[in-house]
Amino acid sequence: MNFQRKKQGYLIISPATKTILKKTKKRWQEYLDKTFAGKKVKDFPEYQNAAVKSIETLIKNWQSPAGAIKHDGIVPSMSYKWFMGMWGWDSWKADVALADFHPDLAKNNLRALFDYQIDSDDDVRPQDKGAIIDAIFYNQDSSRGGEGGNWNERNSKPPLSAWAVWEIYKETNDKKFLKEMYPKLMDYHRWWYANRDHDNNGVAEYGSMVSDANWKTDESGKVIKDGNKNPKLDEEAVIEAAAWESGMDNATRFDKEGSGKNDVGVKVFENKRDGEVVGYSINQESVDLNSYLYAEKGFLKLMAAELGKNEDEKKLTDDASKLKKYIQENMYDKRTGYFYDLQINDDGSKTKLLVNRGKGTEGWLPLWANVATDKQAKSVKDHMMDEGKFNTYLPFPTASKDNEKFNPDTYWRGPVWLDQALFGVEALQNYGFDREATEATKKAI
């Protein structure tokens, strides 16, 4: 800035700098005015302060385009070098918040990830057409000529981008933006079923792309090959990528050894197209992933209606109806009254509901996505509000307190992640449990 200093130590601010400061103050005030417009916030100053803090955090984590990142956007943290990039679902959650007060930034934040959506003519993984990769950083992955960092093309992230686009559209009515994003969102949605649905039953699994990081290596880092001179698959590396793809990196449901009687543990399946491996799935249809995909079908259906895509609208409606029935009938345990992942065998002919691995936040995602029945939702609500399970001092931990592997200090095995807590609150609201939702919100604040 164009500051000048007097001998006495006073600052003289130039007219140009005064103009900048005035514009900056106006910009921040507009963030607040848009956020609080029409809302009864004066009666709840503690929530108003929390909202202001959230706005400050989002804006302070705003990064300009640089290096491989082509659009400005929000990074998860400014205080730790490994978080100075953009991840799919982190960005899309930020976009839902930004839509209220800075939709233009939300649009660019979305574009930053979609700038690297895989095309059919991609020179590394054309079989992944439509996929959105896990994370992008200033330095691109060495497989594409850069120096690495946290750049990751081995897996994707839970599909929440259509939710973000629809929230932005509701705020802006920007049909041009909707037209820009819709075909990209549809390609991403189709990718899940082309590359992550092992038995082709319309129900997806977490997994991994084909990647050099999935090969076994010796002590010197050299790839180990089989008798046919093909690289040997490292199943643990694929399971790691699948857990990363879920966003819940070390959740108890992804422990390779499994838990309890008749649990074969986490296995890896090859997904093939025309005889070629196009990716890998783990042997479980995850309830959170398919709840997200159900919700995504709903948002895409709304977009299709806005854009006059009648055939898409009908197909999305039909597919959503089938998936809803499947989740209700196959991923809910009547005895314990909760939703779980479903273990499958190679051809999908045998399944096991993974009640034995304990309850986690994934179990209330069907309520967030409006896919549960009223009876199922009530039972899930009872678990959520039980102080011996999820209604802890800070509510809605990532694993229930009655999960034998619960640990309040270990990442996704007990600590509270506020995105999952938010989904929990909205899940309760979706089924009319407003008192419980308010109680949990006040407790968290």
UniProtKB/TrEMBL annotation:
Mannosylglycerate hydrolase MGH1-like glycoside hydrolase domain sequence ranges: 85-440
Q: Which organism is it from?
A: Tigheibacillus halophilus
Q: What is this protein called?
A: Trehalase family glycosidase
Q: Which Pfam families match?
A: MGH1-like_GH
So which domain of life are we looking at?
A: Bacteria
Keywords (A to Z) from UniProt: Glycosidase, Hydrolase
Q: Which PANTHER family match?
A: TREHALASE
Taxonomic classification: Bacteria, Bacillati, Bacillota, Bacilli, Bacillales
* InterPro entries, per database record: 6-hairpin_glycosidase_sf, 6hp_glycosidase-like_sf, Glyco_hydro_37, MGH1-like_GH
Q: Name one GO molecular function term.
A: hydrolase activity, acting on glycosyl bonds
